[in-house]
Design a protein that fits this description.
Layout: E1 21-23, H1 25-34, E2 44-47, H2 51-63, E3 66-69, H3 70-74, H4 78-81, H5 83-91, E4 98-105, H6 110-122, H7 124-127, E5 129-137, E6 147-151, E7 156-158, E8 171-173, H8 192-200, E9 213-219, H9 223-232, E10 239-243, H10 247-252, H11 255-266, E11 271-274, H12 277-287, E12 291-293, E13 298-300
Parallel strand pairs: 1-7, 2-3, 2-4, 4-5, 5-6, 8-9, 8-11, 9-10, 11-12
Antiparallel strand pairs: 12-13
Helix pairs in contact: 1-2, 8-9, 11-12
Length: 301
C-alpha cells in the first residue's frame, strides 16, 4: 500500500472460527432439476409462505403440477377454486390424491409441527395422502419431514432471504450498489451533483432486520449525508466505516477495494456483501473470508 495511505481503526475484533454455509437460487434450482423425479408421484404441490413458495413453484412449473400456497389448501372452497385442475387430476387417478408440502428449510421443526397440526384439525390428512419436504434440513430436524435435498447445519444463509435474516447483523455490508445504485459518472463529481445523489439516491433492497457494519469507499467528509440517508430509509446498522482520504488518492491508489478488505480483515463479520464482482474477487483473495457479490449472485468462499 502507498505510504501516503494509512488507515486507523478504533475498533478491535477477534476472528470467529465459524464457517457460514450459503445456498444461492442457482443452487436450489439445480437441486430441484437433479431430483425432480422424486416429485412426479404428487398431484398437488403446496408451498409454505414465503420461502417455501419459491421451492414449490420451481417444482410445480417443472412438472406442470397444480401449485398453491398452504392457506389455499386450508380454504373450504379449495376444490371449487381450482375445479378445472382438480377435475383434470381426478380423471387420471382413482386413488387418494397425493400432496407434497414444501419449505426451503427446516431448523427447529416448529413450523412443520404447526402445519401438521392444522392438517390434522381440518381433517385433510383423511382426504389426501400428504408428505412434507424441505430443501435443507439439519440432523436434528430431518425426521420431521419425508424428503430433503441436503443436511446443512447452522449457521446457514440463503440468497433469497439475505436481506431479511437475523444473521445480517453478523455481516459487513457495502453501501452503494447494495442499498442504493452507484452514482453515475455525471453524479460522481465530488461536488453539488454528488451531494444531490447522496441525498436523493433511490433505495434498492432495504434490510427488514437490523444489520451489522457498513463499509463504503465514500469519503469521510460525507458521513453526515450518508447517515441521514440510512436513517431516512430505516436501515438499522451498528457501525459505518468511511474512507478518510481524498477523491484523488482514492482513484490513484484504488482505495475502494483496499479499504474494504482492510476493514473486513479486522472484523469478526461472517460474510461481506459487495456489489462489484472485481472488488468482491479482490477482497476475497486478500482476506480469504467469504464474499457475496450482488451484481453476479456469486458466493466466493
Amino acid at each position: 500500500m502507498n505510504n501516503a495511505v494509512k488507515f486507523k481503526f478504533k475498533y478491535k475484533f477477534e476472528r470467529l472460527n465459524i464457517m457460514l454455509k450459503f445456498k444461492s437460487i442457482n443452487d436450489i434450482k439445480n437441486q430441484v432439476r437433479h431430483n425432480i423425479h422424486y416429485f412426479n408421484k404428487y398431484d398437488i404441490v403446496v408451498g409454505i409462505p414465503r420461502s417455501g413458495m419459491l421451492i414449490a413453484l420451481m417444482i410445480g412449473l417443472e412438472l406442470n403440477k397444480l401449485t398453491i400456497q398452504f392457506s389455499d389448501l386450508l380454504d373450504k372452497n379449495f376444490k371449487n377454486n381450482y375445479s378445472s385442475r382438480m377435475n383434470a387430476i381426478k380423471q387420471n387417478n382413482d386413488r387418494k390424491l397425493k400432496i407434497i408440502i414444501c419449505d426451503d428449510s427446516i431448523n427447529t421443526g416448529e413450523t412443520i409441527k404447526k402445519i401438521k397440526n392444522q392438517i390434522e384439525v381440518t381433517g385433510l390428512n383423511n382426504l389426501y395422502e400428504i408428505h412434507y419436504f424441505a430443501a435443507y434440513a439439519t440432523k436434528k430436524s430431518k425426521d420431521n419431514i419425508d424428503l430433503y435435498f441436503e443436511l446443512i447445519e447452522q449457521p446457514r444463509i440463503f440468497e433469497w432471504n439475505l436481506f431479511h435474516h437475523e444473521y445480517g447483523k453478523n455481516f459487513l455490508w457495502d453501501f452503494d450498489g447494495v442499498f442504493c445504485n452507484d452514482p453515475s459518472d455525471l453524479e460522481n463529481d465530488d461536488g453539488e451533483k454528488y451531494l444531490n445523489f447522496l441525498k436523493y439516491a433511490e433505495p434498492k433492497i432495504i434490510p427488514s432486520k437490523p444489520i451489522g457494519m457498513i463499509v463504503s469507499a465514500r469519503l469521510e467528509k460525507y458521513r453526515e449525508q450518508s447517515i441521514d440517508w440510512l436513517k431516512k430509509n430505516s436501515i438499522n446498522y451498528s457501525t459505518l466505516f468511511l474512507l478518510n482520504s481524498t477523491a484523488e488518492l482514492r482513484k490513484k491508489n484504488s482505495l475502494h477495494k483496499i479499504f474494504k478488505a482492510e476493514v473486513y480483515s479486522r472484523t469478526n463479520s461472517l460474510l461481506f456483501i459487495e456489489s462489484d464482482i472485481q472488488q468482491a474477487s479482490w477482497i476475497y483473495e486478500k482476506t480469504q473470508k467469504p464474499v457475496y457479490c450482488i451484481e453476479t449472485s456469486q458466493f466466493l468462499n
